[in-house]
Amino acid sequence: MATQHSRSAARLMMSPAVILLLGWMLVPLIMTLYFSFTDYRPVALPPTVAECCVGFENYVRFFTASAFMDSVWTTLIMVGGILAITVVGGILLAILLDQPMWGQGVVRILVIAPFFVMPTVSALVWKNMFMDPVNGLLTHLWEFFNATPINWLTDVPLFSIIMIVSWQWLPFATLILLTAIQSLDSEQLEAAEMDGAPAIKRFWYIILPHLARAITVVILIQTIFLLSIFAEIFVTTNGAFGTRTLTYLVYQRVLESQNVGLGSAGGILAVILANIVAIFLMRIVGKNLDA
Amino acid sequence: MARAVTTQKKAIYTVAAWGIGLLIFFPILWTFLTSFKTEGTAVADPPVFLFFDWTTDNYTVVQERSNYMRYLWNSVVIAGGSTLLGVIIAVPAAWSMAFVPGNRTKDILLWMLSTKMLPAVGVLYPIYIVLIRLGVLDTKGALIVVVMMINLPIIIWMLYTYFKEIPVDILEAARMDGASLRNEIIHVLTPMAIPGIASTILLNVILAWNEAFWTLNLTADDAAPLTAFIASYSSPEGLFYAKLSAASTMAIAPILILGWFSQKQLVRGLTFGAVK
Questions:
Q1: Would you call B127 an interface residue with chain A, using a CB distance cutoff of 8 Å?
Q2: Where does the sequence pass through the membrane (chain A) (predicted)?
Q3: Residue in chain A nearest B30 by alpha carbon
Q4: Tens digit of pLDDT per residue, chain A (291 long)?
Q5: pTM of the full predicted structure?
Q6: Quick one: CATH architecture of A59-287?
Q7: Neighbour count for residue A159 (Cβ, 10 Å)
Q8: 10 Å Cβ neighbour count for B71?
Q9: A177 near A158, Cβ under 8 Å?
Q10: CATH numbers and ranges of domains, chain B
């Protein structure tokens, strides 16, 4: 059906999107690459204006600073922790919500609500109204049980942020997995039950394989969004107490200390690391989605 | 054969699910309740749940003091504008990829998605400089374009997924019956494409409304949307729990309601049809 004519028309229709995305990707990336080889500190005294080239000085400095490896670990722990909580929690919650009950529709609405809450709102609400060491609701709860309240964002900051972000993303995982479970052929489950397969085995050999594709999708989408967590850290700890992800470290170098050269080198490193993750994920997507 | 479920089992599931559901929803409920308290009641020890003198003062104060309507308007313009612009650019692209696929279509689609993985922070400063040079930093127009670019890959993927589901047979049948291209587009294609486009718009308004990284870093005052407005409560004003709650409630209510309506589309859209 695709004639030469329709092919060129298609190319024409695609070109605005392709050109825009290419420009959006290449122009800033090339600029960042250029900055990363310069000593560029616009607000230093005296200001150092983009002096090319200092070679790999910035890269070496960024790479060897202890903050770099720390931030990579923080990123991995944060993303990994959130993925683990939301995927495992999502599977359990989806199975529960799939059971017969009264008011299933309402429960579903309650469960998915956090996904639509603005990240800055959820971070602030959690920080002030729940995790505040004096007036936070969790503090009252701890005191009620005569336990010593925890100063969440300074004592267990990384854990606190993982909790906040998991709260935001658990609904997404649950909703996707619930939809997948509901598409499961119930006759197969019934047959297995008739044959006397216990619940654990039914879960392991029937439900979980059926969910594999949905789990892949959840991990992919969440990773895309989670690698660039920003607002939650910005609002709660501002990168202090070991909650500095790679994204946040670069942000601090570039915008807060205005060392554009150094920050840009970090930015390029972040791009390279993200690409390694991306290639890995894209393989899975390419296999799992029929494009 | 439906499995016979005992009432007892159903009751247990109901209690468990409602318990967990309310636990997850609780922070939102608590924010909503706190927004009607006085500052004193908001930090009362022990906390009060429902039985307090309800007041709407916080809403009045938030609106008067920080001009909430302006931030709301900025959010509406940025979310709406970027979605509209994105859809205008994405529809032809997704359309041609779905109906006239070439050898490289799949590669192009995956490449587009991979631009989503480009760490925003790596390109923040260049974009910042470009906007300053163009004299458009802290304008709604610039934010519309930036947020549009952020979501464009997702928009294209979603539209592609929906368009792909339109059966080509119907098109061919219409052509056999002698439908003109005009009629084909108006009477056959459009009715089938509209639901997909509508879902895409809905989801992208939600994503754009909540987008925080670029709105926080590229706006100062004039173009700041609700995300930035709320972040300004970070400290020390954040200690005013009741006002923070009122501001938060106003910021999330419209999108929460929109989100509840679009939960079905969310599954299809954000998973690119891989889960139905």
A1: yes
A2: 12-37, 72-97, 109-126, 158-181, 211-241, 261-285
A3: A129
A4: 556 777 788 788 888 888 888 888 888 888 888 888 877 777 666 666 666 777 777 787 778 777 788 888 888 888 899 999 999 999 999 988 888 888 888 888 898 889 998 888 888 888 887 777 777 777 777 777 877 777 777 777 888 889 999 999 999 999 889 988 888 877 777 788 788 778 888 888 888 888 888 888 888 888 888 887 887 888 777 767 777 888 888 888 877 777 788 888 888 888 888 888 878 877 776 666 554
A5: 0.85
A6: Orthogonal Bundle (1.10)
A7: 16
A8: 22
A9: no
A10: 66-232 (1.10.3720.10)
